[in-house]
Specification:
Layout lengths: L13 H18 L3 H5 L2 E8 L5 E3 L1 H14 L5 E12 L2 E10 L13 E10 L2 E10 L1
Parallel strand pairs: 1-6
Antiparallel strand pairs: 1-2, 3-4, 4-5, 5-6
C-alpha cells in the first residue's frame, strides 16, 4: 500500500516538495515497521505525539518507543493525503494531512482509525527536519 500524496509535483514549490517528502518518509517508515526509518526525518530534538496522546521527545526516544511497538503489536499501514502545506516563515512549514489505516485482517481503510496528521518542519543549515508530528484521532 502506498503512502504517496497525489498532487502534480510541477505545481509545488521546492520547499513544499521537500516538506511533503518528510511526511512520505515517516509514513513509509511506519508502513515498513522500521523505527529508524520513521524517526530519520526528525530533528534530534523533534517531538512525536501519538494517536493515544503519548509524547515522545527526541529522535532517540521515538526510535526506542517504536521499536517496542513494532516488536509487540501488529500495526496497520497508513494511507495519507496531504491537505495543505503552508510556509509560516522561510524556514518553518506546517503540513496537514488526513490519514487512514488498513488493519492487518482487512483490505480497506477502517474509518474508526482515521486521523489528522499535523507536521511542523524547520529548515536548519539548508535541511528540512520534523520538529513536531502529531497524530490526532
Amino acid at each position: 500500500m502506498s503512502s504517496q500524496t497525489f498532487q502534480p509535483q510541477d505545481s509545488l514549490s521546492p520547499d513544499e516538495i521537500e516538506v511533503r517528502a518528510l511526511y512520505r518518509q515517516i509514513l513509509d517508515g511506519w508502513n515498513k515497521r522500521s523505527a529508524d526509518a520513521f524517526a530519520a526525518p526528525f530533528a534530534n530534538d523533534g517531538d512525536s505525539i501519538g494517536f493515544d496522546g503519548s509524547q515522545l521527545i527526541g529522535r532517540a526516544e521515538i526510535v526506542s518507543s517504536l521499536q517496542r511497538i513494532f516488536a509487540d503489536h501488529p500495526t496497520a499501514p497508513y494511507v495519507g493525503k496531504v491537505r495543505s502545506v503552508r510556509l509560516l516563515s522561510p524556514d518553518v512549514a506546517l503540513l496537514r494531512a488526513v490519514a487512514g489505516m488498513v488493519p492487518p485482517t482487512k483490505t480497506d481503510i477502517e474509518p474508526t482509525l482515521n486521523t489528522i496528521h499535523t507536521l511542523v518542519a524547520t529548515r536548519r543549515d539548508g535541511t528540512w527536519r520534523i520538529v513536531l508530528f502529531q497524530n490526532t484521532p
